Amino acid sequence: MTLRVVVADDQALVRAGFRMILTADGIDVVAEATDGAEAIEAVRRTRPDVVLMDIRMPELDGLEATRRILTGADGEPRVIMLTTFDLDHYVYAALTAGASGFLLKDVTPEHLVAAVRMVRSGDALLAPAITRRLVERFAQRETGPPAGHRELGTLTARELEVLRLLAQGLSNAELAAHLHLSEATVKTHVARILAKLGLRDRVQAVVLAYRTGLVTPA
């Protein structure tokens, strides 16, 4: 099936550039939006797999649009936030609102296409170390003292260990080497963690690990 994407950005050149890159790789850009309200309507109308959402837009920003789109959503769509700055203070809030990650607007064409495809399949969008740096910077400021998460009690000792290491920035290959497991086994552990905690992807797992105090900012 063709992967369907909505691009929401108030800059026409950004939208046009992303459309050109994505369509050249066989990805269908089903709608464009210039602000958050248009993005919500476009998602309702076209039911895309992935939304590329600018954070800073007029009328309704991308953060609030993401909250509204993902509230009550049953796994779809995945939202990738677009930002000019790699440590934009809105990004952490976007991740907690349910976004699957973020990209810089100067992303390479290859990385853009790969990110959209990875998010659609449920894989990690961001390099884990980038996610960790982001969460470490904003977790305490945004959430205050960590609150427990009752679902952590459903994880096995091995799954808790995997979650701790994942939140510290280890990739699947690094997890496998550290735990002396195959990458396939690591992927199975990660999938079970996400299912038990009701999370969309690894990015949300990292956020939860910091919010619950399972991992603390350095």
Describe the 3D structure.
By secondary structure, the chain is an alpha/beta fold. It folds into 2 domains: 122 residues, Rossmann fold (3-Layer(aba) Sandwich), CATH 3.40.50; 67 residues, Arc Repressor Mutant, subunit A (Orthogonal Bundle). The protein is 52% helix and 12% strand. Strands 2-1-3-4-5 form a 5-stranded parallel beta sheet, sandwiched between helices. α3 links the parallel β3 and β4. α4 packs across α6 and α7 packs across α9. The relative contact order is 0.12. GO terms for molecular function: DNA binding.
Pairing-aware structural class of the strands and helices? alpha/beta
**What is the domain tally?**
2
Shape from CA axes? globular
CATH topology of the largest domain: Rossmann fold
Alpha carbon gap, first and last residue? 43 Å
The share of residues in helices is: 40-55%
Could you give me the name of the CATH homologous superfamily of the largest domain?
A: Response regulator
CATH class bucket of the largest domain = Alpha Beta
Compute the number of strand runs.
Answer: 5
Low-pLDDT stretches: 143-147
User: Helix count, per DSSP?
Assistant: 10
Radius of gyration: 17 Å
Q: What is the beta-strand fraction? A: 5-15%
Adjacency order of strands in the biggest sheet = 2-1-3-4-5
Order of helices and strands: EHEHEHEHEHHHHHH
Summed over residues and divided by their number, the pLDDT gives a mean of: 83
| CATH-level-2 architecture of the largest domain | 3-Layer(aba) Sandwich
Major sheet size, sense and barrel closure: 5 strands, parallel
Pfam families: GerE, Response_reg
Domain HTH luxR-type: 148-213
Protein name: DNA-binding NarL/FixJ family response regulator
Keywords: DNA-binding, Phosphoprotein, Transcription, Transcription regulation
